[in-house]
TrEMBL record:
<protein>
    <submittedName>
        <fullName>Protein containing Phenylalanyl-tRNA synthetase domain protein</fullName>
        <ecNumber>6.1.1.20</ecNumber>
    </submittedName>
</protein>
<feature type="domain" description="FDX-ACB">
    <location>
        <begin position="1"/>
        <end position="53"/>
    </location>
</feature>
<dbReference type="InterPro" id="IPR005121">
    <property type="entry name" value="Fdx_antiC-bd"/>
</dbReference>
<dbReference type="GO" id="GO:0004826">
    <property type="term" value="F:phenylalanine-tRNA ligase activity"/>
</dbReference>
<keyword id="KW-0030">Aminoacyl-tRNA synthetase</keyword>
<dbReference type="Pfam" id="PF03147">
    <property type="entry name" value="FDX-ACB"/>
</dbReference>
<dbReference type="InterPro" id="IPR036690">
    <property type="entry name" value="Fdx_antiC-bd_sf"/>
</dbReference>
<keyword id="KW-0436">Ligase</keyword>
């Protein structure tokens, strides 16, 4: 939802903020469901050379 390229970001880099919503149609999600999904997302981002700043 936000892309920043400015003085505080190294040349050739961007800071990207985004929002993720996790839902299940049939049940309440548990922390382990969210953690598993986040691990997959972070692993994929890492494989593309994307660095998590937060």
């Amino acid at each position: 939802f936000d892309i920043y390229e400015g003085d505080q970001i190294e040349d050739g880099f961007k800071s990207v903020a985004y929002s993720i919503v996790f839902r299940a149609k049939d049940r309440t999600l548990e922390d382990s469901d969210i953690q598993s999904a986040m691990n997959k997302i972070l692993k994929e981002l890492e494989s593309m050379g994307i660095e998590l700043r937060a």
